[in-house]
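Exercise 7.
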Amino acid sequence: MTVPPPPPPSASVLVVIPARMASTRLPGKPLADIAGRPMIVQVWLRAMEAAVGPVLVACAEAEIAAAVREAGGEAVLTDPDLPSGSDRVWQAVERFDPQGRFDVIVNVQGDLPTLDPDLVRAAVEPLADPAVDIATLIAEIRDPAERDNPNVVKAVCGLAAGETQARALYFTRATAPTGDGPLYHHIGLYAYRRSALERFVSLPPAVLETRERLEQLRALEAGMRIDAVLVETVPLGVDTPADLDKARRLLAAH
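Solution. The predicted structure, written as tokens, is:
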């Protein structure tokens, strides 16, 4: 894919990777070995390769922090009982940067060891427009089976032919929108203005968020603007032993 321009000079970007050992389908996955390194370290490396700013791991447990620091990274311990990754990211930002030096926060999920660093750069691009509160990524759904799969979250965007960025109007597990045209797979990687992230985590869960089980709907219900960037591929998220085996094969090949 084409590498987007860097963020505007006025923006100071901090990448934060939330990680915790508890996982229903793959307990302890941040420390799972992939190509000789813990998975969380592989994710940290991919985020570092994006070169948009410092990378911080927001850890629920000390053993994750130890693995990151041993690899040369920075980590902040957070409350293990926080309700979401977004809350973990915000608490880490407050502890790491109480001075407010960073005004753009990129939330990279901790289970993306094969993440293309270009995707991190792409997520920052829409924040060049001061009207945008949050930016995220989408990819066109090409597998017909994914169109009706509720585990594949769809982003509803009015993206005209040839455009690569549009405002996100809704996110849903349903098959939407109807009619002829592409559907878009939402990729859960976000770039927030710091003020937007602070506001977001202060809001109570919203009606549609609870119904769809999609946290980003809280922002839309509160009137916040989310823009989405069209990219070519969906990164592999490691949620199961089969995903872990695939990630191992992919990174071993490189």
